[in-house]
Specification:
Length: 144
């Protein structure tokens, strides 16, 4: 897939009904172990994209561009709601916390491996140690 060659889907065709937004949550018993981390990462990406555009719109004077960004944010809100609500109700706060820490470890490790600047790479490696420490400490926590 080459995203520069993809035509995309027009905004009016991306509007979802409530039935399209609400999906059955994944079952942690029957999915890959990384499903939780993928869901957390995608939810975070959607939240950050929406927040960036929200801040950007507040600084724009161009009314047409503002209207377009508001439409895009509405679509992204629907996507984020779908991603967020995939979390199973059985998932505890500790499960979610461990998922967040696992996302931090995996993402920081990937960034460190792919960074060419030695100083920035060391910064990521230092952050990775902290992320591992958090994951280790939370994994020993017992809510019972």
């Amino acid at each position: 897939m080459n995203i520069l060659k993809e035509k995309g889907i027009s905004l009016d065709k991306q509007v979802r009904t409530w039935h399209d937004i609400v999906k059955r949550p994944y079952s942690r018993d029957f999915v890959d172990n990384y499903t939780r981390t993928r869901q957390i990462l995608m939810n975070g990406i959607e939240v950050e994209a929406w927040g960036f555009k929200h801040a950007w719109v507040r600084k724009l004077d161009d009314l047409e561009l503002r209207k377009l960004l508001v439409s895009i944010r509405r679509i992204e809100d629907m996507q984020q709601t779908t991603m967020n609500w995939l979390t199973p109700s059985r998932q505890s706060i500790l499960d979610t916390t461990l998922g967040y820490e696992q996302v931090a470890v995996d993402l920081t490790a990937w960034l460190a491996q792919n960074e060419s600047n030695p100083y920035v790479k060391e910064t990521f490696n230092f952050g990775l140690l902290e992320d591992f420490d958090h994951l280790y400490r939370w994994s020993g926590f017992n809510l019972d």
